[in-house]
Predict the structure of tRNA threonylcarbamoyladenosine biosynthesis protein TsaB.
Amino acid sequence: MKVLAIDTSTFVMGIAVVDGQVVKGEIITNLKKNHSIRVMPAIESLLQECDMSPKEIERIVVAKGPGSYTGVRIGVTIAKTLAWTLGISLIGVSSLEAMAASAKYFQGLVVPLMDARRGQIYTGLYKAEGGNIQSIVADQVILATDWANELKAYDEPILLVGNDSSLHEASFIQTLNRAVQVASFTLHNPRPSELAWLGMHREPEDIHTFVPNYIRLAEAEANWLARQQEGTEC
C-alpha cells in the first residue's frame, strides 16, 4: 500500500511517502514558518523525488491533533481535500501517538507532551513493547504538575518525548526522581513515516464527518461560548 502521511500539528512539518514496508521519502522541518504555504509544495516535491504521481497514492494518514489549532486545521484540511479529490481512504492518528511512536523501542512508558500554556500540557500515556506502541491513558490536557503526580502510580521507567519537554521536565524530575528520563533531542521531532506506519492498517474515516481532535476549545471560542451563556442566563 502506498501511503502519504501529513503532520502539521506543531512547528514540525512532516511529510512521508511509504510504499508497503519501504519509506520512499520523508521531509521533516522544525521551523516557525507558515505551514499553509509550505505543505503542498513539499508534498509535490517529495512525490516527484519518489517518482510517484498523486494517483498512485492509496491512503492518506494525517495527524489529527492535539496541537496548534491552526497547524492541526491545515493538515486535516489538506488531507481531507486530497483524499476526496483522489477518491482514496483517509486515516486520522493522534499527534501525541505519532510522537510517542518515535520511542517505541523504549522499555517502559512513553509520555509525549506539547506545551498548552499556563502550566498545562497536551499529553497521554503510551506503552512501548516489542516495537509497538499502545495507549494506556487517553490524550488529555492537564497541568504538568498534576500529571507528574498521577504518574507516580506507575512502577515503570518513564520517557518524556517532544520538543516542549524541556519546558516541563523540572516538574517531572522533581516528582518522579530517577523514574523519569528525557528522550534524546533526536527523538523529539515526530516522524511522518511512523505516522504512516500507525495508520496503515486502521479502518478508514468518513471524509465528510472527520474533524480534528483539539481536546479543548481555542481560547477565543471558549470566551465566545461563555458570553453566549451569560446572555442566555440574563
Q: What stands out?
A: The chain has two domains: 2-94+191-223, 103-187. Helices lie at 39-49, 69-86, 95-101, 144-150, 165-176, 192-199, 219-233. Residues 218-226 have pLDDT under 50 and may be disordered. The first helix runs from residue 39 to 49.
